[in-house]
């Protein structure tokens, strides 16, 4: 199995290099998924070309090797989905969204607590059932999704181990995001109570139109800013709650006449001011 160990070391090295690279999170996550998929296919080819000489080798492969690579695919797919959805939330509601994701991970852990305990404690007495290949057979405690894969490359619970590893990592990422966002909110609240004396006096839809215009033009931080951060900034400094600003943006997009009504009003107001000063 030296060839397998070499393959796994190469994977770990390439993945570490990729994750340390600078770049936009979703694009980098897609690259990580592509890399993991490539190595997962390499593992599939490997076991097609090499027979396991002992049952222990087969168990080790499906308990430790394959889940390590597969967990990266689950993790980065979940991360992309989460980050894409997070763009639709303002800072205050974003914390609630992150807490909801943690709650779902806790639900998974509770539903699979016996298996997780078995895996985490290094137990082996069910390994033969859990981590050796079975032709189209669903054992008690097996994940139904395993039947959707090639039975020559799938044990009853290798996917579940990958989920455990991926969700642990995702929970850590979410907890870090919550800590960062909480710190930002605390700083914003401090600014709000001590410095902000400005109030948005037009309607909220108009402000959402302005925020999306600034976001789309990439004129702030050269476009390296989330829509949620911009929304939070305006909420903080103009003393209001935008609520579901993405729904308001959909309302703006649905306008048949004057889709940029507020921006047109700003332009007209500026032109009028300039004309008055010329006269």
Task: Based on the model shown, name its key terms.
mainly alpha; 279 residues; single chain; 71% helix
The oligomeric state is single chain
Major sheet description: none
Number of strands: 0
Calculate the terminal CA-CA distance, rounded to whole Å: 87 Å
The low-pLDDT segments are 142-148
Level of helix content? over 70%
Radius of gyration: 26 Å
> Topology as H/E string?
HHHHHHHHHHH
What's the average pLDDT?
Answer: 85
The number of helices is 11
Structural class: mainly alpha
Looking at the structure, what is the overall shape? elongated
Briefly summarize what is shown.
It contains eleven helices and no strands.
What do these coordinates show?
With 279 residues, the protein is mostly helical. Helix content is 71%, strand content 0%. It has helices spanning 2-20, 25-49, 55-86, 91-111, 113-120, 127-130, 158-194, 204-217, 227-237, 245-253, 261-278.
